[in-house]
Amino acid sequence: MFAGGIGITPLVSICSDMLARPAEYPNVKKIVLNWVTRSENELAMFGDEFVAMAMDERFTIIHYKTTGAQFGADSVETIDDVEKIETPTGVDSVAGRPVPAQILKPYAVAGQKIAVLNCGPKGLVTAVGKAVGELQSSGAVIHVHDETFLF
What we know:
Layout: E1 2-4, H1 8-20, E2 31-37, H2 47-54, E3 59-65, E4 75-76, E5 84-85, E6 92-95, E7 97-98, H3 100-104, E8 113-120, H4 122-137, E9 141-148
Parallel strand pairs: 1-2, 1-8, 2-3, 3-6, 4-7, 8-9
Antiparallel strand pairs: 5-6
């Protein structure tokens, strides 16, 4: 899952539901929520929810604090390659923007189906869509749902 700014709101609800009712979502083995905001201050909005969801081993959240650069510049290739920022919620936070292709690639293996939910501004939705297209052209089975918002 990829969320930009307030695009996190529906994805938090979806994650909570899937984690709370595993019998209704038997095919959900792992949820990785990538959230992009301008600062780590936004983490406080869902701090309690993130802490509760993180108790489930199927759930991971990674927060990206942007620097105002375009997608592709100041990008984070992998979460392991960057210095994490301490946050009061305990959520891993990194400076930079995600590289969707690098994030999705480990999950896009032959025979494995993955779903990508994507809610955010046009730049994020476009970057994720491009990454999904590249992975699909190499044979990955990826189902995508996008929501875009503009101000």
